[in-house]
Amino acid sequence: SMLEAAHEHDIELEGKDDSISSGACEGSLACSTCHVIVMDVDYYNKLEDPTDEENDMLDLAFGLTETSRLGCQVI
Ligand code: FES
To answer: What is the pTM of this model?
Structure first.
């Protein structure tokens, strides 16, 4: 999954502390706890474009960046 692959691709996860759970809504696009910032632009550009639903939820994410995604929506 994205969460497992994150380290390999220099992706910074918002909740580094294990007590902050990532993926609170289990991938149903109802939270933004799985917000990830893709540090590698080449990798970001290889990803499928976010859906409108993902973008709406990303707007609510803390610290949104140009290369932010929701981890649960990225394979
Ligand atoms: Fe809730 Fe991704 S786990 S939006």
So the answer is: 0.73
- CA separation for the pair 72, 34 (Å, rounded): 6
Quickly list H helices, 14-66. Answer: 41-46, 52-58
Kindly tell me the sign of the dihedral angle through the C-alpha atoms of 38, 41, 44, 49.
Answer: positive
Give pLDDT tens digits for 33-74. Answer: 989 999 999 999 999 999 999 999 999 998 999 999 999 998
Q: In what order do the strands lie in the sheet with 11-13?
A: 11-13, 35-38, 68-70
Task: Provide ipTM, 2 decimals.
Answer: 0.97
- Residue 11 Cα to ligand 1 midpoint, Å, equals 16
For ligand 1, whether the C-beta of 27 sits within 6 Å is yes
Contact 74, 34 (CB under 8 A): no
